[in-house]
Amino acid sequence: MSTGTHLPGLGVLIGYDGSPDGERALAWGARAAAEAKAPLYLAMAIPAGALGRHAHAAEVREGARALLEQAGDRSRVAHPHLTVETSLVEGPAADVLLEASRRAELIVLGTRGHGGFAGLLLGSVSLRVCAHTSCPVVVVPEAADHVDTASVVVGVADHSDTPAVEFAVERARRIGGRVVPVHVWTLAMAGYFPGVVAPLLGDPLDMAATHDHLLAEILDPIRAQAPDVTIEAIVTTGTPAYALIGVAAHADLLVVAAHRAHGPFPMRLGPTTHAVLHHASCPVAVVPIPAAAP
Predict the structure, then answer these.
(1) What is the pLDDT of residues 240-264, one digit of tens each?
(2) Contact assessment for residue 32 and residue 137, using Cβ atoms and an 8 Å cutoff
(3) For the domain 2-140, what is the CATH superfamily, name and number?
(4) Do residues 209 and 226 touch, judged by C-beta distance below 8 A?
(5) Nearest partner of 244 among 184, 160, 165, 202, judged by Cα
(6) What is the pTM of this model?
(7) CATH code at 146-289
(8) Residue 288: closest CA among 265, 261, 264, 260
(9) What is the pLDDT of residues 165-210, one digit of tens each?
(10) Alpha helices, DSSP H only, in the chain?
(11) Residues with Cβ < 8 Å from 52, sequence gap 6 or more?
């Protein structure tokens, strides 16, 4: 096992802390690494400042090292052909994972560390990694234990979401499942006045046809490149987050794009991404999308 702040080239990176959520992330990530024939890397972060004041710092380090090694051993037993490496690093968990993400293909996290080993992975850590990482992140919730279909749902707003769709297709190919792109649009109205029905700004059938055409433009090239993967699109009206959460209730994975805008807070996640991370019952993949030029 290596220690320090410099991590080697990575495949699937697991942010592990020994909590129940960390165990779910470990199981999902080890399986994903085996399916992709990629190496698995388990990283555990220990807050350096806290250890400096800890009367039993050496014992804490040894306990963390043992916990991490046991997790690696379980992964090797579950997936005998999987290459597994571990790293115990002193520093803030989010910083450790973000540094490692520069060399990882995928990061897998639990939603939070409920009293796990020193509470190393909290909800704020998962959110920060999703907002800033340079590679895709999968967050595995407690409800993911009940996933029972091999479908991958992906939110598609426009052409910029193509990388998220491609990620979903690759995941579906590996699990022998189908991809369900979901495009949600809203009826344009003249305004809202209490007690008054405002007129629509256009014909609903024409609006629907426009959105059907948009989704076809996005998906047709991907279908041509992945004829072995079933892609069954859904176009609907409503709120994107609620629609995605509903369609993905029993899916293997829900994929959303992380659009990062220019400005004073360039790495914030949008409201749809926040909502699905907090409320989806299946694992959620957040795929970074390059920011548009200002």
Answers:
(1) 999 999 999 989 999 999 876 555 5
(2) no
(3) HUPs (3.40.50.620)
(4) no
(5) 184
(6) 0.85
(7) 3.40.50.12370
(8) 260
(9) 999 999 999 999 999 999 998 765 545 555 555 555 556 677 788 8
(10) 20-36, 48-52, 57-78, 93-101, 123-132, 162-175, 204-225, 240-247, 271-279
(11) none
